[in-house]
Specification:
- The chain is mainly alpha-helical.
- The chain has one domain (21-209): TorD-like.
- The protein contains 10 helices and 2 strands, in the order E-H-H-H-H-H-H-E-H-H-H-H.
- A two-stranded antiparallel ribbon has the order 1-2.
- Helix 7 (140-152) runs antiparallel to helix 8 and helix 9 runs antiparallel to helix 10.
- The longest helix has 22 residues, at 188-209.
- The chain is globular and about 40 Å long.
Length: 211
């Protein structure tokens, strides 16, 4: 897998300068980090950055514990070992231990109707498939990257963001993160699964309260 996700937003839309509240920036950054960690194994530079995490100011105990676990995992592992773990988990020989695609979790098969629905929605939102990336758009990393972009995009309203989350993330991704935590292969990625699961708990409450 490449170190980029399989979708990108139309470059005609410049969202980089959108002013965000701190809470929204944290949400976007969290999705972007999950996307980076799940699109490819982390570099030694990213591991060093994760080793400097400080989540003590967050009131959510589960997410604080998850960030602490990720910090510790980053300090105790090196990029080469994590790359081997990533290979076993997500690539393997023919297929990795886990299949990080929405269609698989929703139907038991790849390239099914949920993917067709997602592709249509991505086109409507201005996202295009990158020709040099061969993974389907319902890869967990690609969906996290889309959510990060929707949060920072000043053309996207709350209802659009909520609909995308409900239709393509909340109906399966927590199960993926739980499987990642329970995998015997997971070392560093057990902490990634813990973070993803804790973060989606907060996202579920966010979308349920903002009505």
């Amino acid at each position: 897998m490449s170190n980029q996700t399989c979708v990108e937003q139309d470059t005609a839309q410049d969202t980089a300068d959108k002013p965000l509240e701190e809470s929204q920036q944290i949400r976007a950054n969290s999705y972007a980090l999950l996307a980076a960690l799940l699109a490819n194994s982390p570099s030694q530079e990213l591991l060093a950055q994760l080793g400097g995490i400080d989540a003590e100011k967050d009131d959510e105990k589960h997410i604080v514990n998850a960030w602490s676990m990720l910090k510790l995992a980053a300090e105790r592992n090196n990029a080469e070992a994590i790359a081997d773990e990533y290979q076993l988990l997500f690539i393997g020989v023919g297929k990795g231990e886990l299949v990080p695609f929405g269609s698989w979790y929703l139907t038991g098969f790849l390239m099914e109707k949920p993917l067709a629905h997602l592709r249509q929605r991505l086109l409507e939102l201005g996202f295009e498939h990158q020709e040099d990336v061969h993974e389907p758009e319902d890869h967990v990393a690609a969906l996290c990257e889309v959510m990060a972009q929707l949060i920072i995009d000043d053309e996207t309203d709350f209802e659009t963001e909520k609909a995308f989350y409900t239709d393509f993330i909340s109906n399966w991704m927590s199960r993926f993160f739980q499987d990642l935590q329970q995998s015997e292969t997971s070392g560093f990625y057990r902490a990634v699964g813990e973070l993803g699961d804790a973060f989606l708990e907060i996202e579920n409450r966010y979308f349920s309260m903002m009505v």
